[in-house]
Design a protein that fits this description.
By secondary structure, the protein is mainly β. It contains 1 helix and 12 strands. The strands form 2 sheets. Strands 3, 4, 5, 6, 9, 10, 11 and 12 form an 8-stranded antiparallel sheet that branches. The two termini are about 25 Å apart.
Length: about 190
C-alpha cells in the first residue's frame, strides 16, 4: 500500500514515499493554502536530539511536515517551550517532488537540518513518525513503523532512529533510484535504536 525510504547527508534529509493512489487511480488534493489533513497526504514527525538543537527557536518540541500530491506543504512546531502555542514551521530550503503514474504516487522531499534548528546531521538518536493519509475511497491513516498511540506530537509515541555516519549514497532526486538503491530504515542513514 505504501513504502518509505530515507537517507541523508551532513545537512539534509532525503525522503521518498511510494504509495497507491485511490481505488480509481486518483488522489484527493487541492493546491494552495488549506488544511492538508483533508487530502491524500504524507506526514512526517521529527524529534531531534537535544544536543543537536543549536538554534534557540528549536530548543524544545517536535516538528510536523505534511505534503500532498499537488506540491502543497505545511509545517508545524508543537510544544516549542516558553509557554508558547504551536506555530508554523519555516520551511526554508525544503524541496518537494511528486509524480503520479497509473495507480502509484511517488513523493520526494529534501529537508535541510536547519528546519529543525540543527546546523548539521551528526550521529544521534531521533524520534520519528512517518505516515500516509488516504482520503480517496475509504479514509484511513497508516504509520510506517510501530506507533504507540499516544498522539503523534507525544515524544513517547515516536520510534527512535539512530543517525549513522556510514550511510547509503544520497539519492539522485528520483524516487525510483532511491528505492532501487535499497535505502530503507535498516540500510540507510537511520537504523532503529
Amino acid at each position: 500500500l505504501a513504502e518509505c525510504a530515507f537517507t541523508g547527508d551532513a545537512t539534509n534529509f532525503y525522503i521518498a514515499v511510494r504509495s497507491a493512489t485511490g481505488p480509481d487511480g486518483t488522489l484527493v488534493a487541492k493546491e494552495g493554502p488549506h488544511n492538508l489533513c483533508y487530502d491524500d497526504s504524507v506526514e512526517f514527525w521529527f524529534n531531534p536530539p537535544e544536543e543537536m538543537r543549536q538554534m534557540e527557536f528549536a530548543r524544545f518540541g517536535v516538528f510536523q511536515i505534511i505534503a500532498n500530491s499537488k506540491g502543497a506543504i505545511e509545517g508545524h512546531h508543537y510544544n516549542p517551550g516558553y509557554g508558547l502555542a504551536a506555530r508554523q514551521l519555516k520551511l526554508k530550503g525544503v524541496e518537494v517532488g511528486n509524480s503520479v503514474h497509473g495507480e502509484v504516487w511517488d513523493f520526494e522531499i529534501k529537508i535541510p537540518a536547519a528546519v529543525f534548528g540543527c546546523n548539521r546531521l551528526d550521529e544521534s538518536d531521533w524520534g520519528m513518525i512517518f505516515a500516509r493519509t488516504f482520503r480517496s475511497g475509504r479514509s484511513a491513516q497508516g504509520s510506517f513503523q510501530p506507533y504507540l498511540g499516544m498522539g503523534y506530537a507525544d515524544v513517547k509515541s515516536q520510534t527512535c532512529h539512530r543517525l549513522r555516519r556510514k550511510a547509503s549514497p544520497t539519492p539522485s532526486g528520483k524516487a525510483e533510484e532511491l528505492f532501487k538503491s535499497g535505502c530503507n530504515c535498516s540500510q540507510a542513514v537511520f537504523a532503529a535504536c
